[in-house]
Amino acid sequence: MNRPYIITLLATMLVWTLASPAADLVPKPLLPVGKSRPSRSSVLLLGQPLSPAIVESVQTSMEDVTTLYRLDQKTETVEQLLGLIKSAEGKRMLARTWHVLVINLSADGDATTQIRTRLEKIDAHIIWREPGQKADAKSLEETLTQALLKNSTPWATLPKDEKRDPAQLLKQDGLLSNPASLPLVPSQTSMVFRAEEGQWQFNLHSYIAHHEGKFWATWSSGRVDEDSSNQFIRYATSKDGLKWSDSGVVAGDPDGEVGPLRWLASGLYVEDGKLYALGCLNEGSDKKGKIWAEAKLVRLQWTKDGWKDLGVFADNCMVYFPPMKVAGRDFFVWRDERAHFFTARSLPGKAQWEVKKHPNFPPDYRMSETSSYADADGTLHLIIRDQAKTRRLYHSLSFDNGDTWTLPVKTNYPDAVSKNMAGRLSNGLYYLINNPMETGRDPLSISVSRDGWTFGSPKNLRVGSPARRYPGGAKNDHSFQYSHAIEHDGKLWVIYATNKEDIEVSAFDIEALVKE
User: Exposure check for the chain: N or C terminus, fewer CB within 10 A?
Assistant: First the structure.
């Protein structure tokens, strides 16, 4: 198993990074590895020289390869690798995603020495081969097999004739260089729920729907802090979307304010003439690394007698939008109780889900709240919040109804690290709502697209938020955030939280939104 010019590292977990192929030297092709494996793995290639030829060789000759990622600067690559290995020391937290690692270090140096030193500290998970050593293929077979079969996720590539770049989400760089100065779209704005002194001062995760001649809104509500153990789900209704009823309860705190259980509103939608609300019931974070311990997605239905609990819709699941129909099946982007990122589709005729780990490469970034839509060609788009705070949205696509996905790419679209909302209008245009000011969640802005790939004509929906009235954990001052939207009667109705205190709705004429 001799591979000239290559130092081979085989890990039982996955690393997702690839250095830039910026050299003229062409190393000999890598030998096929695990060619008969029924599932795929991922490969990290680092260092110089690493030409396009070897990258192509890996992609074409190694059927198990699912992920190649390229960085522009070698120094950045080294820093990321060191950070990755340092994070793994003692914790083993990244074990859920590592598979196979192939590293080319062309020369000795401080960086190479640091990497080798770090690797030696986690040798229980690494098989290290220096240049010139003879690797016994049989001794590696079991480890390699385990690596290739663990948490494997096939990935997709762009069609060969596709000229559009998923990273070019914003039509032109600089369009959002000064979001506060964008034109403000005229609107009708109403207060759905206003926080009061000594009452329920945290309100977020709002959703809107139209059913049986009325607008409906749901949201998470807590006394003071975000995701506290007293958090539950409220709702309100309005005949005209302007004057709202007093709030009621969709799902109350099941174990009292001192108990660990809490609700997080997760969606509101109409299907087959019925109104459904989604909520994630969980115990919050624990000392074992769980963000939403014992998370269960519960579906509730509005009936003449009020909200009826239909039971667990999906186990170990946190979602941020209602399900989307893809080829007749419910589709979700969800995260499990440890915040790992998945896509899921309902199984035909069964109350079960087909859940797939989305191809990604932590710890470079952490994919978080994600909106989705299908374009006119049937391509599925994910617009992803980057929790690692690159201040840019990420973009991933599927060309086969969600069977496989492209690796998420960092786009040129600025973001304040908040939930976004994207969708398609009845006139065929697409919209994207987010907070494009990198330093905060004000303004709340919108842009439009003709093909669903590239967005332009940005405008502000809300700008100049008031000061926060009440303190609270994880509450943002001067902010409009966590929007959800529906189209109704020629308007786009957008619901959002102001300072994580108040829930508001604004209605915009669609003609004004799409005007260039």
Answer: C
Distance separating alpha carbons of residues 105 and 125, to the nearest angstrom = 20
- Residue 442 has, within 13 A of its CA and on its CB side, a CA count of 15
Closest CA to 9 of 143, 113, 142, 109: 143
Task: Check: CB of residue 378 under 8 Å from CB of residue 359.
Answer: no
pTM: 0.75
The band of 32, judged by pLDDT with boundaries at 50, 70 and 90, is very low
DSSP code string of 207-233: EEEEETTEEEEEEEEESSSTT-TT-EE
Q: What number of helices (H) and strands (E) belong to the chain? A: 5, 27
> Would you say how long the chain is, in residues?
516
List CB contacts of 190: < 8 A, sequence separation 6 or more.
238, 241, 242, 243, 244, 504, 505, 506
> What does the domain layout of the chain look like in residue ranges?
52-151, 179-513
Using DSSP's 3-state secondary structure scheme, residue 117 falls into helix
Question: For residue 269, which amino acid is it?
Answer: Y
Distance CA 257, CA 325 (A): 37
| Selected residue with higher pLDDT from 34 and 427 | 427
The tokens describing 32, both together, are 């096929």
Q: Specify which residues 430 forms β-bridges with.
A: 424, 449
Residue range 179-513, CATH number:
2.120.10.10
Instruction: Give the E-state strand segments of 182-286 in sequence order.
Output: 188-193, 202-211, 214-222, 232-238, 248-251, 262-271, 274-282
